[in-house]
Structure formats: C-alpha cells, structure tokens
Amino acid sequence: MKHLSFAAALALLSFAEAQAQDTVRTFSQRQVVEPCRVEVAFSKTLHILFPSEAVYVDLGSLDLIADKADGARNVVRVKAAKQGFEGETNFSVITADGCFYSFTAVYSENPSRLNIEMEDWLHKDPYSDFANRQMYIRLDELSGETPLTVNRIMYTILRRNVRDIKSVGSNRFGIEVLLRGVYVHGDLFYLHVSMRNRSKVAFDIDYIRFKICDKKTARRTAVQETFVNPVRVFDEIMRVDAEAMIRNVFVFRKFTIPDDKVLVMEVYERNGGRHQRFEIENSRLVGAREMDELKIE
C-alpha cells in the first residue's frame, strides 16, 4: 500500500508539473507599458524632452548610447553606438515626477524625427483615460501615494478654486499673496495659494520658501528656523504679470508644529523689493480639510 501511495503521489506530481509547463501566465493590458518606437542614427542625435527631470535611464543593449543634455535635466539624447546595427533594442526612462517611459529603437541613417516632446499628461488632465493607463513609480517622498493621485488632488483643488481660508496672507506694494486652503490626504498636506499683482509692473519671482519659526523671533532673527521643502508643486511659476492673478498648490509631507511656532511662507521678488511674507498657525494644519470626497482611483 505504501508503494502504491508513493507511486500515486509521484504520478500526481508529474502531472502537475506538466500542467504548469503548459500554462503560460499572461498580463492584462493595464499591466503592460506600451513602448514608443523611435529611430536612431550613428551620425545624428535624437533629443527627447520630458515634462520633468530624467533621473534614470536604462539601455537595452550596447547598440545605444544616451545621457542627459548639459544644462537641461529634462532632456535625454540618444544615438546609435555603432553604425547600422540590426534588429530592435529598447531603453527606459524614469522622471522625477514618478512617470515611467518605455521606448523601442531601430536604426535609420535618416530618422524621421530628431526632436520629440513627451506629453505632460499629469498636468494637462490627470483624470484622462490616457493618464490612467500609464505606469507610475511610487516615490518615498510622496509617502506611498502614486504621482497620479497627487496630481489629481492638486488639479482638483485648482479646478474647484474654493477659498476656505479668508484671513491668512500678505498684501503689500500692490502684491497680494493669500492662503486659500489647507487640505490633507493620506500623509500629505496640500496648500492652495494665490498671488495677485494689482500693479502695472510685472512681479518676477526669485524664490519661494517655507520655514518653521518661533513666534517671538520670526520677524527679528534667523535663529531657530527650520526650512520645509515641498515635495511637489503643481506649476513652477516664476512670474505674475501686471494686473494678473495666478494660483498654485504646494505639497508637503504631513507635519505639525508646536503652538509657539508658526509656518512662514516667503515670496521674494527678483531684482526688486516687493517681498511678501505671512504666517500659518498650527491650527490651520491640524484643521486641514480632508480630500476623501475626490474621485481618486
């Protein structure tokens, strides 16, 4: 009986292995990144412009060479490493905003396109079917959220344009900077800010910074300052035209501050003195509006 049981088990195991060999796992269309097809040459350079800085480039073979363009962190240049290579190869690019791009490359002495700009679907319409079909890298700085989810929240805040906070901001020299709302989703804060230029002179932004200061020394000294950098900004706005208004969203990893400290936003004018500054109390952070009602997939 023992020999019969062993034989039966062995036969069953052999059958299972045969079935496993005959079974081929397939991926759903949603799991597959469809590559873009490009042509490369030995004597000409292909430039690909991405919406964000390229932080990772991987080449499928030694038939290609690639690097980032000098002084342009969002531009990747690609060439054939040897003339007339046969067949097809590939390369992939990951950008700082968490988007993943896949390409297949074939050789051509005269490529039909030498300069390609990738579409910025994250900003254009993060709710589109096209954006939903793309692949995204989960970045530590976003506390586990996908870049698509974060951009959808920023996009929706700007589209709704609700002013939940009425009394926090700065208004000097014809320039008005207002905190319109503080929102929270998961482990991220979203600060909705508007800037209005009521003057006839354009306001060129040198830089914007956020810092945590002691209430008693915030206006008199730089001591006890802790700078807090946003992990995402919807638009890199560097200018507010005369008699114009812009709005933006700044994203921070979740934090709170003691009641004796404040979060300070400063906006400095380039080659000018119309600097703006205002304070955000801790109560605004802990009272942030939840964004669970958004249609986030």
Walk me through the structure.
- This protein has helices at 2-22, 121-124, 129-133, 147-160, 282-286, and strands at residues 36-40, 46-49, 54-59, 64-68, 75-80, 88-95, 100-107, 115-117, 169-172, 175-185, 188-197, 203-214, 226-228, 232-233, 239-240, 244-253, 261-269, 276-280, 289-290.
- 16% of the residues lie in helices and 39% in strands.
- With 297 residues, it is of the alpha+beta class.
- It has five helices and 19 strands.
- Strands 9, 10, 11, 14, 16 and 19 form a six-stranded mixed β-sheet that branches. Strands 12, 13, 15, 17 and 18 form a five-stranded antiparallel β-sheet that branches. It has a four-stranded mixed β-sheet with strand order 1-7-6-3, with no helix packed on it.
- The mean pLDDT is 85.
- It has two domains: 33-118, Immunoglobulin-like; 163-290, Immunoglobulin-like (Sandwich), CATH 2.60.40.10.
What's the structural blueprint in terms of helices and strands?
Elements lengths: L1 H21 L13 E5 L5 E4 L4 E6 L4 E5 L6 E6 L7 E8 L4 E8 L7 E3 L3 H4 L4 H5 L13 H14 L8 E4 L2 E11 L2 E10 L5 E12 L11 E3 L3 E2 L5 E2 L3 E10 L7 E9 L6 E5 L1 H5 L2 E2 L7
Parallel strand pairs: 1-7, 2-8, 10-19
Antiparallel strand pairs: 2-5, 3-6, 4-5, 6-7, 9-10, 10-11, 11-16, 12-13, 12-15, 12-17, 14-16, 17-18
How would you summarize this macromolecular structure in one to three sentences?
By secondary structure, the protein is α+β, with helices and mostly antiparallel strands.
